[in-house]
Each structure stands twice: as structure tokens, then as C-alpha cells.
Design goal:
The complex is a heterotrimer of chains A (537), B (405) and C (366). Chain A has 537 residues and is an alpha+beta fold. Chain A has 18 helices and twelve strands. Chain A is elongated, with a radius of gyration of 31 Å. Chain B folds into two domains: 212 residues, no CATH class; 161 residues, GMP Synthetase, Chain A, domain 3, CATH 3.30.300.210. Chain B is 37% helix and 29% strand. Chain B is built from 16 helices and 13 strands. In chain B, helix 11 packs across helix 12. In chain C, 75% of the residues lie in helices and 1% in strands. In chain C, helix 2 packs across helix 7 and helix 7 packs across helix 14. The two termini of chain C are 37 Å apart. The chains are: A alpha+beta (537), B alpha/beta (405), C mainly alpha (366). Chains in contact: A-B, A-C, B-C. At the A-C interface, helix 17 and helix 18 of A face helix 1, helix 5, helix 6 and helix 12 of C.
């Protein structure tokens, strides 16, 4: 009904103007050559929103006519608007009379010629386009007697400024991070890759939100197949609202039931740039600092920018630490459960005696104990994130310390279990990617259950199944475990080991596809080893 | 990918999970276990109670000290039965927890039982998957085996561990006892012509007094565990204990002694003490005629002078040369003594048969069944090569310095 | 079936893991006493010899599994019978190996867990992986292979440093002559585990690189032979041949001997893991071969056969004998009388018929 209101109004009001309105209630609005009508229509459609600003002014001195600048307050760059309207259009009162066009429709040309100063200018003759443009932060100039609108690119307004990344922190490396503004984000990448081969494609998603999305890739490096695949999947998206890149991520990722992330995300422009250079495709969504990178492999989630700013030996050590962390995160509590309840003979005797003494008065079985503690740890972590930053840290530290101590004091949990749980918790923080850490945390519970039922039998079977599962995953046709499996010697340069810079060719071997991959990988490997030999010699 | 297939999978998963939730069959919480640190086996009074088995159980609370009640750190559970397993069952019935053998460090067999044969005892230790093959085996010399397990010890609170450590420390420098584990004993019993060797152990002092904490209250403990000789077997029956030079010789033949002391008496109140180290023994046979095999025992060793009371000028190499000869003779004597005893007992626990077999497998096969009659007549050649590298931190002895003045 | 291609490296690892299977942990070739390791190595050479025959068939029909060319060579009805027999033997093999593995596991570690549950977990995991596809199985085998080799390395180092190995225990070499060794090879050694490679008759067409395929399987057999032979060597040097002979699971005892001071001891769990992994791949390969054979024969989709086959394997494996001893007895008979039919006799017939046809068709126009 609401939509009907302006339409019917429009019909009656636009009797004099050119009205292409249909007779049905789904009437399409058009830009009327009557300024007052158009402005009224805009107001109505937006429900007289207070942030809608309309500035009426006259152009020309000899034979002035009315014009109006319409924009959304707060979404425009105020300085640009002022410049656009005041300096370009309202000035020059002593304009020669002969310049004034006779016909109202020709006024457009005049204004355009003057307003060109702003640079980004377009003409809209479609109502929906105009409204979208208005809502995107552009300024619309409407001229009386003219049924077209001029759009001035004045997008702007208050965005968060570029600041340090909050979730992917490095010791050494660039300190900027993406912001919510799409254009800024693209610029952040372009500043790093000043190459004409960096191509950007714009698209809009969300039937309601009309969110801008940019697809970035290096024309000469991106895998054609992957690019087509990404575009194909993007074209299949049907969604009302896109408020974060994860909305898109979930719609385009390979549809397999898995906790593991198959699309990489980052808020670091340097990471995005590096990935572009490696031939990956970057998807930036307006309104979020997290950009999507695809295709991805598991190893990528364990890389950090630090690795490249540090010397290779140190970086390799750090990598190893991360891989070990992942293993501890996955298996720590379950191995402990298996050891104490199934394979007590494996524990060195002195340690066993101390474990036994601790266990003496604890009421819960080890498995339950572990699950309770892990769950408590998850709660603490969650609370720490939600709390205001100043309080959050205190809560997590105090919570961990006091809860841990009290729980041991009270004899509910053994001290060793607290150690194990804390260790896995810390290990999960050592993993650079939050997504992977979360996946690990979920899988960990599965292992704990398996271990509590079958000891190492459960763990081993679980491991095999987990490896098979991860092996079966793909990210846009790239095997998830590449380059471990399918194995390629060349791919190993930047996985667990990071070889010295002079041996790293930033562009890795083609990640390849499930099927034809092995052969090409092999060929690549051999040809590459020859090249390496040359470098060495 | 058919949808129904996926559903079937889920169904299967759920049903298996449900099945599994019903029980965690093998999961035993640690506080349901009693960790056995040592097992002793004595002869029981009757056929119904053929074996009297004691289990030394660790009381963890007493050892880590936090909730300690100040009682003994271990407790002994006893049970008897017609087999070790039956005895274990009887002992377990007295215990509130599952007696877990996974950490048993020592098995002690009483001499009385060992003389009758240990073959039937060892099977359970090998068969039981919880037991370790690396458990050490001892024979309690002239005492009840359970007495060995009921002595409060000075270092470490678990007597069984004390025994293990004494054995290892001893073997490193002074003693001739060496690690003998379950599988070594079993191999000894299995070799038809030979026999096992097992370490002997005794409680020195008053075994009764060793049981209570009073044992540790004074500076001089009333009872101390001590390795005592090597028990040699003919197949599975204990024949004798070997101490002194025979024991040392036996250890040397088995190449288990990497360091041992030697004492040279030059008469005239002059003497020298040496520590022999880097000792390596190899046994080879020449068995062209398997009826009359020649056995060659080669020993390589170095000597370090530890104490010297004599007037000789030991900065002369000729003196050292002479000592080397004397030392070699001493070593030869020890080995010879060990060989003689073995031949007298007619048990090839020194494994000449293996050397013969290695040298002449076909010939050995012929004489295998008669080895008992051949072994005592083997010709044994012992070659010892000793090297004195230096005289340690001093050259002349105190005595020679006095005389020079 | 969808287009599956398994890379050469992954195929190698799959064959290797299959061959190592249970053979790594149980006592193989102990009829030869302390020369078991020689027997194993000879058995491995025989296995490679058998494979050359398979290779001939593979070259004739590089794109067909056994179930395909058996029908092409012998004609539809007879071929179908042969393929059915193979499907049965594959199912049986999977069931037997599953039983082997679960029985050993129950003996060594999970004393009180019902063997049925242990087996069900195993077959469920296999089913899951096969559901993901043969390629995933092969690629998983590669990663697990690295893991297994690492465990092997750890055990080897531990053995060396703990000083439990006494090389004199394998001497004298061939003390009783070659006869017991040869006997051991002929009785069962060439068949277990090396002859079992006949499963790969079903999988060979999926090798991605047809040219190199010829070398993949033999080299994997050789590698497996060396590893198993080496393991037997270690077992004998640590425990002595008598003890190894009496032990169904010697590697476990061997590793339990190893200790580095008080800290690292009882790493037998590593051996248990080796066993689990080995059994897994053995069952999975037999199971996969069976599923492919059935789906090829009856033209049924591969994935729908996974669950029914799993149920057949589970129950046939569990019901085939009352005890492990009975199971081993049966196994011995199978190895001497039944398996050779499938590894040697039928392939030989296929080769002869195929060669004859080949010869005729070539001589006719020429």
C-alpha cells in the first residue's frame, strides 16, 4: 500500500509532465520535467527521510531557471557538493544571455559543460538508476524542464580511516588495513600493484542492499578456469542483503559439509596484493574490511605476513610452530585422554604417579573433565571477545586464572587437565587464521569423543578420516591440501618451509585441478628443478 | 551424489554413535588403578598354594606428598594360587583397585623356586600384553622374595625403583650385575643347551626392620637392598650364584661390563688400583671339528690408574707396559674362572654354542643334541689387550716422592 | 564411473600402504626362522615377477579394470562368472583383513571392547573414505605414508640408541641352508603380502600416467619388501627368532623393549597405530576393488554399493570363525589353496587366452 501512495499521487500530479506511469499499482516512476513533481516524488519514495537534502537554486541571470541538488546527508563528501553546486553552477551570474538555451531540454548541456569540473558525472534518465545513485552517496542535479538527471560523483562522508589491522597482527610489515569503503580498499591494493594488468570488475549484489562488490585479479596471472568458475558462481547468487563478505563467501564456496574454510579472507591489503600476484582472485565487498581470496589451500591459513618480512630460517621456525600448534589444537586433549584412560603404561612412571595423585579425589572421568574444561575455555574466550575492549582482557585473564585455580583447589579438575586445556587454547591463538582455529576447535571435540571411547584406535581412525575429508575438499577446483597432496616438490617452497627469498618465485606453481593436476604438477616440478639447479650454479 | 545415500550415512553414523555411547569398554580412569611397581614370587606351602605372589603397589598420595598421611609409600598385596594368574586374582580381591602390571619394574623370584625351575613362571610375563618385556628379573638369594619388596629405601620412595637404579649405577662402574630382562631370561630358557642368568638380590641387614619407616629414621639404615651375585641356571633351574671374580668374568664374557675396577698387588705392600674402561669383549669360535671346538675370547680394554702405592717411576713407559701385562692377566683370570665354573656346572649360559653355530652351522646341527657332553671340553683361548693411556693427575706416587728425598 | 585419475606418486603410496598393511606388524615368513628377512625379500621378488604378468594384461587393456577385460577375453558369460568370483574374493579379503586387524587390536590394546564394534568403526571409516572416492583414498595414503615412514624412523632411531639390537642374533645366515627359506616363500610368503597385489588389477586403469604406470607397482612392491624385511630383521635382532616365532605381533614386543632412560618408553602405541593404518588401507583397497568390480559387472552406481558392501564385509569377516586362531588356520589354507587361483591361475589363463587371440588376430591379416 505504501508503494501505491506516491504512485497515485504521481499520476495526478504529473498530468502536465511526461508521465509514463502505467495504470496498474506497480507504476514505474520516471523523472519528470517538472522539477517540483520530481522532488516531491523523491521525497515520497524515501518517506521524507530527514537525511534527504534538497537544495534549490537558480541558474543563469538573464533567464534563470530552477534547479535542485539532491543528496543524502552524511553519505556525500560535503566539500565536493559545495564545490559542485556553488562553484560550478551557481556562480557566473554575468553569464552572457545568448548562452542561455532557449529550450529547457538543452539546459542539460549547459550545466554539464559547467559542472564537468567535478570529474565524475553521468546522466540518468531512469528513475531507479537515479535513486540508486542518490542512495549510494552521489548528488543528483535536477533541472526544471528537463527529464534527465545529472549525477555528480560525490560519494564520501565519514568512513573509518585506514588504521592498523585488528585481527591479523604482525610484528613487522605494513600496518594498514582495509576499511569499509570499497574505493579506498581498491586504492590500497592499487598502491601496491601499480600494474595495468590489475583488473577490477564491479558488480552489485543484494536485491535490497545493492552492495557494491569488486572482483580483482591480475589479468596475466589469474587462472582462467578459476576466474570463470568464480564469475559463474557469483552470477548464481540470489540474495536480498549483503552486509559482510561472509554472505558472499557462504554462497560461492564449494558446497561440502565441512568446518574448514575454503575461501580465504583477510583485512590486510598486503596479503591481498600478494595473493593477487600469486594469481588468486580477490573479492572486495563494500561495507566490510574483510576481503575474500580464492582459491585457497590449507597451507595458506597457516601463513602470516611476518613470514616474508623475517629471514627464511626464522620464518620456517615460525611456520613449524604454527603447524605444531594446529596439531596440538586438534589432538592435545584427546591424546591426553587416551593416554590416561587407555594407555597408562605409556606414561613414564614418575609422571604417572603424579597424575595418579592428582586424580585421586577428582569426581569426573578424564573425558568429561576435558570436555567441561574446554567448554569453559570456549565460554571465557567468547566472553572476552564480546566484552568492551578495556574489560575484555581483564575478564579473560582473571577468568582463566581464577577459574583455573579455583577449580583445581576445589578438586573438581586435575591441574594437568588445566595445563592441557590452556595449552590447546594458546595453540589455537597461534594459528593466524581465525576461521581455521575455529574449525580446529570444533574438530578437537570429535577427537576427544573418539579418544574417550577407543583410545588411540579412535584417534588414528579419526586422523585418517580427517585427512581423507580434507583431501576431498576443493576450493574452486584447487585441491585443498595442495601442495602436500597432490604432492609437488616445487610447491613445498612456501609451506612448512619457507625457502630463502632468492629461491621464491612469488608465483607458485599453478594450483591446478583435481584431475589433470598430477601430471602437470610433475612436469612443472621437473622443469623447475632444472631451473633451480641453474640458479644454484 | 544421491540424497538418500547421504541420509543413510547419517542414520548409520547415529546408530553407531548410539551403540558406542553405551559403553567405553576399555577406558579405566587412573584413580581406579593400583600401579604395581614390583612383583615377587615365592614358593607356597602346598600344591593348592603353589605360588605365593606379592605385588608392590604404589600409593601415589604418599609419594607426591600433598595429601600424604605419612604412611608407607608402597603397600604389598599378597595372594597365592596354583598359577601366577590365580595368585594375582586372589591378591586383587583384597585391593580396592585394579592391579595394573603395566609399570612393573622388577620381578623377584625366590631362590627356592628358582632351584625348582622357572619355566612355568615366565609365560605369563611374556603373554600378558600389559607387561613389559623390559621388566627386570631378580632372584632373592636365600631370602623370601617378598622381603625384597618390603624394604623402605633411602633414595626414591619406591623400593622397586631403588633396585633398578642400584643395578644401573652398579653396572656402570663397579658391579658385575647387569640388566637382565624378561626376554633375556626367556631366551636363556629357550636355548636348550644353555641356561639363563639372573641377578641375585638380598636384603642386607634385618629384613624385618626394613619394613617400617623406622628403617630410615637413623643415619645407618637397618636394612638395605643389595645386588648379590649372578644366579646361573641350567636351562630353567638355578645352579649357583657367582660372586667375585667369577661374577665379573661372566659379565665380561657377555660384554655387559663397560667399566670395572682391578687391583694389582705387587707384594712388598705395594699395590695399584685401576679402573678398567672401554671394555669390549668378543667371543668367536673355530669349530671346524664341532666335536672339539676352539673358543676365542678377546677383550679390549683401557685402564685408568686410580691409586698407586709403590716406588716405581711411572713416568717410564716400560712400567706401564708391564702393568698392562699384569692387568691382562688379572682379567684373564676372571674370565677363566667364570668359564671353569660354567664347565663344571655343565651349563652353557656363557653361550659358546651360539659362537660355534655361527662358525659352523651344519656341524653344530650334528652335535646340537650332544652339546652337553662337548661343552665342558671346549678349548678356551682368552686374549686380553689392555692399554694404560696415562697416569691421571699425578705422576709419581706419594711414596716414591718420599724415597727420592 | 566418473573419470578418476590417480597420480603416480599417490598410486605408489597406495600400493605401498596396502602391501605394508598388516604384514608390517605380524610375523611374516617365520617358518624360515632367523632367515625370515631373506624369505620376505625373496617373496617380494616373486611378487614382482607375478606382477609382470599383470603388466601384460594392463598393456593390452590400459583403460579397463580386470572386470572389464576378463569379459572381453573370456566372453561375456564366462567372464561374468570370473568377475563374480573376484568380487567375492575381494569382499572376503576385506572381511579377513578387517578381522585380522580388529582381532590384533583387541588382543593388544582394547581387551574389553567388543570386536564387532572395533570392526564396525574400521569399515565405517573405510566406507567414508571410499565414498569420497578412490582418488581421495590414494591421496590420503600418501600423507599417511609420510606419517608411517616417520614412525618407522623414530622406531629405528630408538632401537639404535637403546642398544637392544644384537646383530649376532641373525647369524649364521642361511645356517640351515636355503631350504627352509624357499619353503617359507613357497608356502605363503609370496602370497602374503606380495601376491595380494592382485587387487590392483581393478585399480590400475585409474593411474593417471599410463607410461610410468608400469614401474609404479613393482617399485612399491620392492619398497614394501625392503621395509617388511627390515622390520623382520629388527624384530629378530631384538627378540631372537624363537620369540618372534611365538609372537603374533612381534613388532609390539620389539618396540616395548626400547627405552631411552625413563622418559621415552613403551612406544608400542606407535605400533598399534601402524597396525590400524595398515589394516585400514588393506581393507579399503579390497573393499574398493570389490565395489568397482560389482558396479562394473552389474552396471550399478559406485556409491550406492558402498553401504551394502560394508555390511557384507562386516558380517562375513566377523562370522567366518569363532576365534582368531581358527581365523588364522583358515587364512593359512586360503593362502595356499584359494588365493593362488586368483593371483596366478586365473590371470595366467587370461594372459594365455589373450596372447593366443592376439597372435591369431595378428597372424590372420598378416
Amino acid at each position: 500500500m505504501k508503494k501505491n501512495g506516491p504512485n497515485s499521487q504521481n499520476e495526478s500530479a504529473g498530468a502536465s509532465g511526461k508521465q509514463a506511469a502505467g495504470t496498474g499499482n506497480q507504476a514505474v516512476l520516471t523523472i519528470s520535467d517538472n522539477l517540483a513533481v520530481t522532488l516531491e516524488n523523491i521525497k515520497r519514495e524515501l518517506g521524507s527521510s530527514p537525511d534527504l537534502k534538497i537544495r534549490k537554486f537558480q541558474i543563469g541571470s538573464a533567464k534563470p531557471f530552477w534547479a535542485a541538488a539532491v543528496y543524502m546527508d552524511g553519505m556525500v563528501n560535503t566539500a565536493a557538493v559545495d564545490e559542485f553546486i556553488l562553484e560550478a553552477l551557481m556562480e557566473n551570474p554575468e553569464d552572457a544571455a545568448e548562452e542561455m538555451p532557449r529550450e529547457p531540454q538543452d539546459r542539460l548541456g549547459l550545466v554539464l559543460a559547467r559542472g564537468l569540473e567535478l570529474g565524475e558525472i553521468a546522466i540518468r534518465d531512469n528513475w531507479d538508476d537515479m535513486m540508486l545513485s542518490l542512495l549510494s552517496g552521489n548528488t543528483i542535479i535536477l533541472l526544471d524542464g528537463c527529464s534527465k538527471a545529472i549525477e555528480g560523483g560525490t560519494k564520501g562522508g565519514a568512513w573509518r580511516t585506514v588504521s592498523e589491522p585488528s585481527s591479523q597482527i604482525v610484528i613487522r610489515g605494513p600496518k594498514d588495513s582495509f576499511v569499509e569503503s570499497l574505493i579506498t580498499n581498491i586504492a590500497l591494493i592499487r598502491r601496491r600493484i601499480k600494474s595495468p594488468k590489475l583488473w577490477v570488475e564491479f558488480m552489485k549484489f543484494g536485491t535490497v542492499t545493492n552492495t557494491d562488490v569488486a572482483l580483482l585479479y591480475m589479468k596475466d596471472r589469474a587462472d582462467r578456469k578459476v576466474l570463470d568458475q568464480v564469475k559463474f558462481r557469483l552470477s548464481k547468487i540470489d540474495i536480498e542483503a549483503v552486509l559482510e563478505s561472509s554472505y558472499i563467501e557462504q554462497l560461492i564456496q564449494d558446497k561440502v559439509f565441512t568446518p574448514f574454510p575454503t575461501v580465504f579472507n583477510t583485512e590486510r591489503p598486503d596479503v591481498a596484493a600478494a595473493n593477487l600476484l600469486e594469481g588468486r582472485i580477490v573479492l572486495i565487498v563494500d561495507g566490510t574490511p574483510f576481503v575474500l581470496i580464492m582459491p585457497t589451500v590449507l597451507a595458506q591459513f597457516l601463513q602470516s605476513t611476518d613470514d616474508y618480512s623475517l629471514q627464511f630460517d626464522i620464518a620456517t621456525l615460525m611456520r613449524l610452530v604454527r603447524y605444531v600448534s594446529l596439531i596440538i589444537l586438534l589432538l592435545g586433549p584427546s591424546v591426553f585422554i587416551a593416554l590416561t584412560t587407555f594407555h597408562y603404561e605409556m606414561v613414564p612412571t614418575p609422571m604417572l604417579i603424579s597424575l595418579l595423585a592428582q586424580r585421586e579425589n577428582v569426581p569426573f572421568p578424564a573425558a568429561i573433565e576435558a570436555i567441561i574444561m574446554e567448554a569453559a575455555f570456549e565460554i571465557l574466550r567468547e566472553a572476552g571477545i564480546r566484552m568492551p575492549r578495556a574489560v575484555g582482557q581483564t575478564v579473560s585473564v582473571v577468568g582463566a586464572l581464577i577459574l583455573g585455580m579455583a577449580v583445581v583447589e576445589a578438586g573438581i579438575i586435575t591441574p594437568v587437565m588445566v595445563i592441557v586445556v590452556a595449552l590447546t587454547g594458546i595453540a589455537s591463538f597461534a594459528i593466524p587464521s581465525y576461521n581455521l582455529a575455529v574449525a580446529g576447535r570444533i574438530v578437537r571435540f570429535g577427537f576427544m569423543i573418539a579418544a574417550s571411547m577407543f583410545g588411540f584406535y579412535g584417534i588414528t581412525l579419526g586422523l585418517i578420516v580427517l585427512i581423507a575429508h580434507v583431501n576431498s575438499l576443493q576450493s574452486f577446483g584447487t585441491p585443498y591440501l595442495a601442495p602436500f597432496s597432490p604432492f609437488s616438490v616445487r610447491g613445498q617452497k612456501d609451506t612448512v618451509v619457507r625457502v630463502p627469498m632468492f629461491l621464491v618465485n612469488l608465483r607458485p606453481n599453478k594450483l591446478g585441478h583435481m584431475n589433470d593436476n598430477d601430471k602437470s604438477g610433475k612436469d612443472k616440478g621437473t622443469s623447475d628443478s632444472g631451473k633451480d639447479g641453474q640458479t644454484g650454479a | 551424489m544421491g540424497r538418500p545415500v547421504l541420509k543413510l550415512w547419517k542414520l548409520l553414523m547415529v546408530s553407531v554413535l548410539l551403540l558406542v555411547v553405551a559403553g567405553c569398554w576399555d577406558s579405566v580412569e587412573l584413580n581406579k588403578r593400583a600401579i604395581v611397581s614390583g612383583v615377587s614370587i615365592d614358593k607356597g606351602p602346598s600344591e593348592e598354594k603353589k605360588y605365593r605372589v606379592s605385588f608392590q603397589v604404589v600409593i601415589a598420595d604418599e609419594i607426591t606428598g600433598k595429601n600424604s598421611r605419612g604412611n608407607a609409600p608402597v603397600a604389598l598385596y599378597k595372594g597365592s594360587g596354583r598359577s601366577i594368574y590365580e595368585a594375582l586374582g586372589n591378591a586383587s580381591r583384597q585391593s580396592a583397585r585394579i592391579l595394573s602390571l603395566g609399570h612393573a619394574k622388577v620381578i623377584i623370584i625366590s631362590e627356592e623356586l628358582a632351584r625348582e625351575g622357572i619355566r612355568d613362571l615366565m609365560d605369563i610375563f611374556e603373554r600378558e600384553s600389559e607387561m613389559r618385556l623390559s621388566t627386570l628379573v631378580f632372584v632373592s638369594r636365600g631370602q623370601r622374595a617378598e622381603d625384597i619388596l618390603s624394604v623402605m629405601t633411602i633414595f626414591g620412595k619406591i623400593p622397586a625403583n631403588d633396585l633398578v637404579q642400584k643395578l644401573e649405577t652398579g653396572n656402570r662402574s663397579f658391579g658385575y650385575n647387569f640388566r637382565i630382562e624378561v626376554d633375556d631370561v626367556i631366551r636363556g630358557i629357550l636355548a636348550k643347551e644353555a641356561g639363563a642368568i639372573i641377578n641375585g638380590v638380598i636384603v642386607k641387614g634385618d629384613p624385618e626392620a626394613g619394613e617400617s619407616k623406622a628403617n630410615l629414621e637413623g643415619i645407618k639404615p637397618k636394612a638395605i637392598l643389595k645386588n648379590a651375585g649372578l644366579a646361573v641356571f641350567k636351562q630353567d633351574k638355578l645352579m649357583a650364584f657367582q660372586d667375585g671374580i667369577e661374577g665379573m668374568g661372566l659379565s665380561l664374557i657377555h660384554n655387559k661390563q663397560s667399566e670395572y675396577p682391578l687391583f694389582l698387588d705387587f707384594g712388598n705392600n705395594e699395590s695399584a688400583s685401576f679402573s678398567m674402561f672401554k671394555v669390549h669383549t668378543s667371543v668367536k669360535a673355530n669349530a671346524k671339528d664341532p666335536e672339539h671346538p676352539d673358543i676365542y675370547i678377546n677383550v679390549q680394554q683401557q685402564a685408568a690408574l686410580k691409586a698407586y702405592n709403590g716406588a716405581l717411576d711411572i713416568s717410564k713407559s716400560s712400567v706401564l707396559r708391564n702393568w698392562e701385562k699384569l692387568l691382562s692377566d688379572e682379567t684373564r683370570k676372571e674370565i677363566d674362572a667364570a668359564v671353569k665354573v660354567a664347565m663344571r656346572l655343565n651349563s652353557d649360559y656363557i653361550r659358546f654354542n651360539e659362537s660355534v653355530e655361527r662358525n659352523n652351522p651344519k656341524g653344530y646341527k650334528r652335535v646340537k643334541d650332544r652339546w652337553e657332553s662337548i661343552f665342558p671340553h671346549c678349548k678356551v683361548h682368552i686374549r686380553v689387550n689392555t692399554l694404560v693411556r696415562h697416569t691421571e693427575m699425578r705422576t709419581r706416587s706419594l711414596r716414591s716422592s718420599e724415597e727420592m728425598e | 564411473m566418473r573419470d578418476i585419475r590417480i597420480g603416480p606418486v599417490h598410486f605408489f603410496s597406495l600400493v605401498l600402504m596396502f602391501e605394508l598393511g598388516t604384514a608390517l606388524v605380524v610375523n611374516v615368513g617365520m617358518e624360515a626362522g632367523r632367515d625370515a628377512w631373506i624369505a620376505i625379500f625373496l617373496g617380494c621378488l616373486v611378487g614382482m615377477l607375478i606382477y609382470t604378468g599383470y603388466n601384460y594384461l594392463f598393456k593390452l587393456y590400459p583403460d579397463l579394470p580386470l572386470s572389464g577385460y576378463a569379459r572381453a577375453i573370456l566372453g561375456k558369460p564366462l567372464g561374468a562368472v570370473v568377475v563374480t568370483l573376484y568380487a567375492v574374493i575381494f569382499l572376503n579379503g576385506a572381511g579377513r583383513d578387517m578381522r585380522d586387524g580388529s582381532a590384533l587390536l583387541v588382543m593388544a590394546a582394547l581387551n574389553r571392547t567388543p570386536i564387532m564394534i572395533v570392526a564396525a568403526m574400521m569399515i565405517l571409516s573405510c566406507g567414508y573414505v571410499l565414498h569420497k572416492g578412490l582418488e581421495v583414498l590414494a591421496r590420503t595414503s600418501f600423507i599417511i605414508m609420510i606419517f608411517v615412514l616417520m614412525i618407522g624412523g623414530v622406531i629405528t632411531l630408538l632401537m639404535l640408541f637403546s642398544g637392544e639390537m644384537e646383530w649376532s642374533r641373525i647369524l649364521p645366515m642361511l645356517g640351515d641352508g636355503i631350504k627352509p627359506v624357499a619353503l617359507s616363500v613357497i608356502r605363503s610368503n609370496y602370497m602374503f603380502p606380495f601376491g595380494e597385489v592382485f587387487c590392483f588389477l581393478m585399480l590400475m586403469p585409474y593411474i593417471g600416467d599410463k607410461k610410468r604406470a608400469v614401474w609404479i607397482v613393482p617399485s612399491a612392491i620392492l619398497a614394501a619388501g625392503l621395509i617388511i624385511s627390515y622390520t623382520a630383521l629388527v624384530n629378530i635382532t631384538v627378540l631372537g627368532s624363537d620369540m618372534v616365532e611365538r609372537s603374533p605381533f612381534p613388532l609390539l614386543s620389539t618396540v616395548s623393549k626400547a627405552a631411552l632412560s625413563d622418559f621415552i618408553q613403551r612406544l608400542d602405541v606407535l605400533v598399534v597405530m601402524l597396525l590400524i593404518i595398515g589394516v585400514f588401507f588393506k581393507v579399503a583397497v579390497y573393499y574398493g576393488a570389490a565395489v568397482i568390480a560389482i558396479s562394473d559387472l552389474f552396471n550399478l552406481p559406485y556409491r550406492t554399493l558402498i553401504i551394502p558392501s560394508a555390511i557384507i564385509i562386516l558380517f562375513s569377516g566377523m562370522l567366518d570363525s569363532r576365534s582368531f586362531v581358527e581365523h588364522l588356520e583358515e587364512g593359512g589354507e586360503m593362502l595356499t589353496f584359494v588365493y593362488p587361483v586368483f593371483t596366478i591361475v586365473i590371470p595366467a589363463i587370461l594372459i594365455i587366452v589373450a596372447a593366443f587371440r592376439n597372435y591369431r588376430s595378428r597372424s590372420r591379416p598378416g
